Every structure is written in structure tokens, then in C-alpha cells.
Amino acid sequence: MSDWVAFCGTRDLLLLREALRSVDPQARLELVGSADALRRVVLEAAPTELGVLVGPVGDGVSSVNLAAAIARDGNARAVVLAERGVTGSLRSRAARAGVDVVVDLESLTTAGDGGRPSRPVAPAPPIEPKVSDVAGQRAPVVAFCSGRGGVGKTSVVATTAAHAALWGLEVCALDLDLACGNLYSCFGLPGGSDLARLASVPELSEAVVGGLKVTARPGLSVMGPCDRPEASELVVARAGELITALAMSCDLVLVDTSTTFTDAVAQAAQLADRLVIVSDGRPGTSAALARTSGLAVRLGVARTRIARLENRANPRERANLALGRAEVGLETARVFRSFEGGFEAEDLLASGRVLDLVESGSPFSESVAVTLAQILAELGRLPDAEQARRAAQGSTTRRRLGVFGRRREAR
User: Fold this and answer.
1) Is the pLDDT of residue 330 over 90?
2) SS (H, E, C) the chain
3) Under a CB-based contact definition with an 8 Å cutoff, are residues 154 and 256 in contact?
4) Phi and psi dihedrals of 303, rounded to 5?
5) Which residues is 32 bridged to in the sheet?
6) pLDDT, tens digit, for every residue of 24-36?
7) Residue 382, by phi and psi: left (phi above 0), alpha (psi -120 to 50) or beta?
8) Which residues make Cβ contacts (< 8 Å) with residue 408, sequence separation at least 6?
9) Separation between Cα atoms, residue 159 and residue 373, nearest integer Å
10) Pick from 313, 259, 257: nearest CA to 141
């Protein structure tokens, strides 16, 4: 028997059980009392341990948004959405959001064979990370933004870049805090490359792009910001062009941004395969998240491309899912966590020794590696490296007993 957890309104509880039997006849079902509880239980279970069934939930939250959010979290074995009057549009929307199966509850009331559908739906297999090695394919672009300063965004970007390079990827870390960025300092470099040079170049040739890279280590280069803050306005309009060029010449492009959404940051957000909004636990976090995610949506960034990273998280506490529940753009955002690294991590980053940090095995470094690996796995670009595969199977949530934990311990 397989374990499933579900949530729906009281009106459809009986039909929900029938819907699950149509998908998995040997299922064992546990019901929870709220959307938050459902998502929390799945996040705290072992990866692929639980299947999830979302039924009509009534007021307060959309069932398809809830199912999409759980699918984006990536911890469920399979996600099934059960609704009344399922349309082709709903099925397409659910499929794009990563929902495995959609069941029409109205078909259960009209089908023969004791109320079951005449043709059972096969359970969806566990989702495995995919690896893409298509020659010449555009590299994924992951942009990090925050909406406020001091959240550790630059440290996260630098550590992410170092891990990716150790996994064998050709990585470029682009600093789009054009006026005051200091991403280069995390790698012990005396300076970055002056992006103001773009203002005098009519076309971004391969030679021009290569000349703007500063090598931090083999396979890892840093680009930006501008040497003089006043020159930043001269190159803002070319940020999107630069990112596109980098995506054709690297395996991975990581973009560090300014605190505010300049035109350059907006272009990065629109081009990003994942826009990661970084926050911490200080007062004002919710407001900053809401402003940033809302602006991203207004810029045309698809909700399915937005993720949230809680930096400096306490591993003994669970992720605060309520922060994104009601905010525009965060309804389906997957939540990652990077843990507090302590004085050692701060000292290594401050002294430009991020490469030493990623080899130290600190909680901060390891949780950043998990975040990167799982993002790349979602994009089908997880590299063929043992460290990357291990990180993709890791977790940045606090492990607790799941809904079936007591039963397992009793065996």
C-alpha cells in the first residue's frame, strides 16, 4: 500500500476517496485540516514518500494553485488534483504547473462499476531529475533579487557559482548592481570588469563578451559592475542583450541584482528561467517579498518561474510558508532555505575565500548546493556529477515525523 495525504472541503470527502482509488487502488489516505498543513506535511516528509491529493477546497485558496505549489515544492511522489467540471483549460494549466493527474469528480457520480470511472488512471511515477546535454542549447539563467538590502543575496550567488563550477559547469556570475556591486570580492578578486565598456560597443560579439569576463577559477568567471557608478546608466539598456549572449556561451548564468528593480534588473527577471527572491527573517520580510513578487508578475514573469529562498534560516525551525500564501507571484513559488553559516562562513566570504567555503561542508554551503541542484534538476540541466546528484536528493527542510511516522517506527 502507498501513503497519500489529502485536503478538501467537507462536501467532497467521500468522492475524494473514490478519486484516489481510481488512481491508486491500494492507497492509504490521511486527511489534513488546512492547505498550510497539507503543504507542511509534504515538505517535512522524506522526498517521494507521500502522494498528494488536492480536492475542491472552497473559499480562501484555489485548489489548482495549491496543487501547483506542492508540485513546485518537489517533495511529493505524485500530485493529483480532483475537481468538479474539469475543462481542457484546467487540465492544460495543471499540466504546465507540474500536476501529474487531474480527476473530474463529476465523472465519478455517473460512471458505472460502483461509482468508479470506467477507465482507471495509472499512478504517476516519481519525478526524477532530468539531464539535458543538447549541443548548443541555451544555458539556464538564474537571477537572484531581494527587494531589500542585507539579506545575503550576493553571498548566496557567489556560493552558488562556486558549487556549479566544482560540478564541472562553465559558469558566469553577472553583477547587475551596476553602481555599487561587489560580487567579485567574494572570489578574492581586486575588481570586476567594467560593464561601462558596453556603451561604446555597437555589437556584442563573442570576443567582446569574453573580454568582459574576469576568471575567478577555471570554469568560473565574474562580470561587472561598472567602475564608476555614474556610468551605470549608459549600459542599463543592454543588460538583456548581454544576458542572452552569455547564455549562448556558458553552461549556467547566475545574475546578482541591485536591491531595487532598475531597468537592468527588470530585463534579467524577464529573461530568467528562475527568479529567486531572497529574504531573511528580519521584520519587514513579508512586505519586501510582496513588493518584489508583485512587480515581477507585472513585468510578465510567469509565476511558475518564481522561487523563494529563505536565507540564514534556522534548521531547527520549519519553513514559513505563510509568507507567500497570499502574495501575488508567490502562490506557487517553491520555497528553498539556506542555513546560517556562522562566523566561519562570514569570515571566508569577507576574505574572498568562497571556494574554501564550498569545500568546508558548512550548513550554509551545503544548503545552497541543495537549492542549486534542485533548481537545475527542475530545468532538466543537472550536471552528471556525483556531488550534484547527491545535492539534488537533499533537503533544506527540518525533518520531523510525517503523518505516518508512528506507524513506521512501530514496525
Assistant:
1) no
2) CEEEEEECCHHHHHHHHHHHHHHCCCEEEEECCCHHHHHHHHHHCCCCCCEEEECCCCCCCCHHHHHHHHHHHCCCCEEEEEECCCCHHHHHHHHHCCCCEEEEHHHHHHCHHHHCCCCCCCCCCCCCCCECCCCCCCCCEEEEECCCCCCCHHHHHHHHHHHHHHCCCCEEEEECCCCCCCHHHHHCCCCCCCHHHHHHCCCCCHHHHHHCCEEEECCEEEECCCCCHHHHHHCHHHHHHHHHHHHCCCCEEEEECCCCCCHHHHHHHHHCCEEEEEECCCCCHHHHHHHHHHHHHHCCCCHHHEEEEEEEECCCCCCCCHHHHCCCCCCCCEEEEEECCHHHHHHHHHCCCHHHHHCCCCHHHHHHHHHHHHHHHHCCECCCCHHHHHHHCCCCCCCCCCCCHHHHHCC
3) yes
4) -60, -30
5) none
6) 888 888 888 788 8
7) beta
8) none
9) 13
10) 257
**Strands 220-223 vs 214-217: parallel, antiparallel or unpaired:** antiparallel
Domains and CATH numbers, the chain: 2-127 (3.40.50.2300), 141-392 (3.40.50.300)
Burial per residue of 243-259, b for 16 or more beta-carbon CB atoms within 10 angstroms, e otherwise:
bebbbeebbbbbbbbbb
Contacts (Cβ under 8 Å, ≥6 apart) of 54: 6, 7, 8, 38, 63, 66, 67, 70, 79, 80, 81, 82
Binning pLDDT at 50, 70 and 90, where does residue 405 land? very low
Q: Supply the mean pLDDT for the chain.
A: 83
* CA distances in angstroms from 372 to 130, 147, 236, 256, 388, listed in the order given: 14, 21, 27, 14, 9
- Contacts of 294 by beta carbon, 8 Å cutoff, 6+ apart: 327, 328, 329
- Torsion from C-alpha of 347, 349, 352, 358, nearest 10 degrees: 110
Place of cell 528561467: 273
pLDDT at 111: 43
